[in-house]
Each structure stands twice: as structure tokens, then as C-alpha cells.
Amino acid sequence: MTIKTERLLARAKKLFSKGDFDKSESIYLEILKLSPNNKDAKNAIAALKNKKNQTPLLHTDLQSAVSFATSGKIKEALEIIEPLIDKHSNESILFNIRGVCNKANNDYESAVKDFNQAASLKPDYAEAYYNLGVTFREMGNSDSAIIAYQKALNCNNHYANAHNNLGQIFLVKGEFDSAVDHLEWAVALNPEFSEAHNNLGSTYLELNKNDDAIKSYKKALEFNPNYAIASNNLGISYQRVGKVDLAIENFENAIALSPGYATAHHNLSGVKTYKPKDLQVIQMKSLLSSKQLSKQDRIFLSFALAKANEDLGNHKEFFRLLDEGNRLRKNNSDYSINKSENHNKITKQFFTQKSINKQNKISYDNTSIRPIFIVGMPRSGTSLVEQIISNHNEVFGAGELNNLTSLIIPIIQEHLVNKKYNLSSDEFSSIRQNYLDSLSKINSTEKIITDKWPLNFRNIGFIFSALPEARVVHVKRDARATCFSIYKHYFSGQGNGWAYNFDDLAKFYGLYVDLMSYWQKLYPGQIYDLSYEELTNNQEKETRKLLDYCDLDWDQNCLNFHENKRDVKTASSLQVRKKMYQGSSEAWKNYEDYLKPLVKSIREY
To answer: Closest Cα to residue 154, out of 129, 122, 187?
Structure first.
């Protein structure tokens, strides 16, 4: 498409949107002279013919119905639309408008029928397919929403909103390359599309392209300075690269734009130290007292206020709010410790001494990518260890990757359905190839890549079977320090359901210890145990031993891990940018009276 055609299209669409149909039509006809097969122009001419064929009464009533629908007067809109559908049952636009009204009334089933009917009457009706996609998305049916949005784009590939919504779904699904494709289309078609810039920023953030993410969030705010969500996300980006002042500035800006924005309050609590008479504390208390507060916002504010009271030395209030936040988080989850117990039981059935002896050894090329897995309990020091290793000149720190687990789950599920516990060489080879392929897509020149997903301790059997060249570093920390740190931390996402009360936490810790003991016996000498306390007390000695296990030459940079500029996604993003310090594993003792039930439960560990 030539630049002239693109400009004519933009002008014609603008005139069409303003209701100047005659001028719009003349431009579309001009486009067809230049480009006879232009799909957008053809679709527009057909739509204009449709409008001309409408009776004056239908057109006038339509305008009234649309006016009522867009102003939220759904009952009045339906009172006009229903009789019109009886008289003009072949008019696709009527079904589209009724679908919008039914969706507004949360009558999703009727809305889907209406949008489908509109599209069947007019197969190139992009707006009907778009509305169908919006409806499916609100229903939680993302797969059907994707199909609907793709149909809208088949009718009109210049539909910026459809590209944006499709990109947002792919972002949530973790299909980041597809998300980027559609979101880049959206901002190219509409350079001032703030929401699309924000979604693109969030996708870049997931891809560890923090600089690109910051640019996108800034674009979103440039075109919409009141966009609190973009300001909050920009704060997250700055936090990941250790720019604390800018993170605070953007979180505070998000709160100024939207005082009840609980997510921003929570994010701000993670990067600031509270002082007496802090206005944000007063603000959060006021918000928390509201009966209209959603459960999720109440959780965020409980954790944020708990952090504030910890900073202020109010131990009793700190634990009261912490207990409340965890209680609500637990109630919001369908987790049962039985799930974790069953997981360990099944894992052990797949990996026995007998099954390992029967395995065909996988060959590998020393010149290919070699992963280093850093495992252990969350909050045990895995981020620190990755920061140390990744500051080596031959290593790239990829952060928390969940790639391996996502590859394993479908294989395990298929075996459980068939009640078979023998994994084949082909299955291990498939896991290997797909995992290494995922690492190869990381923007890295280094061949040694760290994967710091702590819960990969559950997958050690798969690691050694599919990736025999890999190294597994197991970070151990005082059980009391680890569990206390977990309990006071808000975990985003739906995982770690065991973290939200003392009983589940202690039992899960026990399951972790049991499984690690099982792996150590099954793979003697292959797993490297690293004590967090020993590392903080004897930094150079322990670092040398660690690098030796990882087959890495000594690199002085590893002692200066705090100077590592890589993005850090975890809650430890600020701590790992500071020099090594001792004593953090003793912090739980300040709250010993409140932690007695937990300490008692994990005493044996």
C-alpha cells in the first residue's frame, strides 16, 4: 500500500466516523481507482451502500438507539431496537446494537447470539466480530475471544482496538511474541493509543526488555498524563533496574492520579521506608476502613500497611495486618496441602533408582547452551546467588523462568490418565529440545544461562534426565528465616497457595526437605548445596566453591554482584544491589513471640 493510499484511507475513515458519508464515499472510490483490490475501501463502500438503503426512519431511530446505548440507557435503547428488528430482520447493525445492550446487561449468552447473527448477515462486519471478542473475553473464554478478534482483523486488518485486545490476551497467556506483533500494529495504526503503549510496555517487561518497556510506558503517559496504571507500571520498570527514586516518584504519581489504587500503594510500600506521620499511611488506613473495598484491594492494603508498621516498629499492628492479609489471600485460594503432598508422591513414582538405571543417556554438545538451575525455597537467597553467578563474564542471568514446568505438566498429565509412570527417552528429548529452544530466544550472547525458578527443586529428576550437562545449585537457609520471609511477602499470581498460613507453610517446608533428601540420595554428588549463611559470612570462599561446581573460572566480578545492572523481577531486586551483609537470617528473632506456632512446627528442620 502506497503512502498516498494510506493517507486517503485515514482521511476517509475520519470523515466516516464524523458522519460525512458522501465525502467519505468519494475518497474511498478514489482509493479503489488507485488500488482496485483494497479491502478496506471495498468494505467501506459496502457499508455506505447499506446506510443509503436504510429508510430515513430506520436511520433516525438507529441514532437514538446508539445514543441511548452509549449513555448507559440500555432499557431505552432496547425499546427502540426490538421493534426495528421485527421490521428489518436483515439489518446486521440492529443485531450488533442489541448485542451491545445485552452485553451491558451481562446477558452474555444473548449478546453472543446477536453478534453472531450480525456477522452471518454481513460476513465482513469487523465491528460485530470485535464485539463478540470483547464479550467472550468478559466471559473468561480467551480462546473464543482470540478467534473472534482474528475474524475482525480478517475483515479489517487496520482495526487498532482489535490488535490491542488480541495482544493483551496473548500477553496474559504468556505468548509474548504474538502479543508484541499485535500491539506494535495497534500503536502503528494509532500512535496516540495509550492503552496499547501500556500493554506493549508490559509485554516488553515480560521479555526482559526493560528499556523498551520504559519507553512504551512513557509513550502511554505522554498521550494520557492521567493514566495511573501506566505510571504504576513505569515504577515497576524502574524498580527492576534499581532506580528507586524514579520508582517511588511513579508509584506516588499513580496514587495521586488514583488515590484508591491499592496496587500502587502496595508497590510503593516495597521501595520506601516509612516514618512517623507518613501521609500515605493515613491514606491507606482510610481506604482499608471502607466497606466497599474489593477483597483483592484489601489484601494489597493489608500487606502494604503491615510493611509500614514493620518500618515504624509497631510489632503488634504489623502482625495483625500481616495475618489479615494472609488470611484473605488463603480464602481467595483453592489450595490444599494435599495437592503438594500428592505432587511429591507422584514425582517419586516417576523417578526411582530402577527407572534411572534404565534410562538411555542423552548426549550433548559442549558448545550449546548450558543451564544452571538455582533452586530452593522462595526467599532463601536464590536471587542473591543468581546475581553472583550472572555477574560472571560467561553467564547470562535469565531470572525466574517457568518454562521447564510448563513443558513437564502436559507429559505428566497424560501419563496419569493412562496410569503409567515410565517416561520415555523421546519425552526427555522433547523436554530438552523445547527448553533449550526457549533459552535460545533470550537476547543473550552468553552460552551459560541461569534459571532461578526456586520451585524447580520439584523438577530435579527431569533436569538430570533431560539436561545432564546442567548444574543444580540448591540454596539452603535457616528454616525460621525463610518461612518468616515467605509469610510477610505477597506473592503475585496464583501459585504458592501454601504460603498463607503457618500450618500449610510448615508442612510445605517439610515436603521440600523430604523431596530434596530424596533427590540427594538418587543423584549423589550432583546437586550443590549452598548455605546462605555461609555465603554471607565467607563470601569469597563460598563463591569460589560455587563457581568451581559450575565449571566456571574465577571472575572477580562475582564478588561485586551488587554492581550487576541486570533486571531483577523478584522482591529482592533492591537487596541484591547492595553489598553482602550478615544477620538477615536473625531478623525473625525480633518477632519470636508472634512466630512461636510456626517455629514449633519447623523445629526439626
So the answer is: 129
Query: Taking the alpha carbons of 459, 460, 463, 464 in that order, is the dihedral positive or negative?
Result: negative
- Domain match, 314 and 444 both: no
Range of the domain at 565: 337-601
CA 138 distance to own-chain centroid: 18
**Closest by Cα among 118, 113, 74 to 94:** 118
The position carrying cell 482509493 is 31
Residues 299 and 397 placed together within one structural domain of the fold: no
Asked whether 605 and 513 are in contact (CB, 8 A), the reply is yes
406 and 297, same structural domain? no
DSSP 377: S
**Helix-then-strand count for the chain, H and E:** 30, 5
DSSP for 113-148, please give it: HHHHHHHHHSTT-HHHHHHHHHHHHHTT-HHHHHHH
Residue that is last in its domain, among 309, 331, 353: 331
Looking at 218, 247, 276, the residue that finishes a domain is: 218
pLDDT tens-place string over residues 315-368: 999 999 999 999 999 998 889 999 999 999 999 999 999 999 888 888 887 768
In angstroms, what CA-CA distances link 431 with 201, 202, 366, 411, 579? 30, 28, 18, 9, 38
449 in the same domain as 310: no
CA–CA gap between residue 271 and residue 83 (Å, rounded): 59
How many structural domains comprise the chain?
A: 3
The CA distance from 38 to 359, in Å, is 59
Read off the pLDDT of each residue in 516-525 and give the average, rounded to a whole number.
Answer: 97
Supply the pLDDT for residue 152.
Answer: 96
Mean pLDDT of 419-432: 91
| Residues 264-315: tens digit of each pLDDT | 999 999 999 999 999 999 999 999 999 999 999 999 999 999 999 999 999 9
Cα distance between residue 563 and residue 556, in whole Å: 12
pLDDT at 571 over 60: no
| Residue 69, in any domain of the structure | yes
* C-alpha closest to that of 264 among 298, 288, 229: 229
Instruction: Give the pLDDT of residue 576.
Output: 46
In a domain, 229, yes or no: no
- b (16+ CB within 10 A) / e for 132-144: bbbbbbebebbeb
Which has the minimum average pLDDT: 178-182, 299-303, 412-416, 580-584? 580-584
b (16+ CB within 10 A) / e for 315-353: eeebbbbbbbbbebbeeebebebeebeeeeeebbebbee
Handedness of CA 57, 63, 66, 70 (dihedral sign): negative
Residue 99's nearest CA partner among 124, 71, 123, 133 is: 133
The rounded distance, in Å, linking the Cα atoms of 318 and 459 is: 36
Burial class (CB in 10 A: 0-12, 13-18, 19+), 90: exposed
SS3 464: helix
50 occurs within a structural domain: yes
Do 213 and 266 lie in one domain? The reply is no
Per-residue b/e over 4-16, b at no fewer than 16 CB within 10 Å?
A: ebeebbeebbebb
Reading phi first (left if > 0) and then psi (alpha if -120 to 50, else beta), residue 46 is in alpha
| Residue entry with cell 529452544 | 437
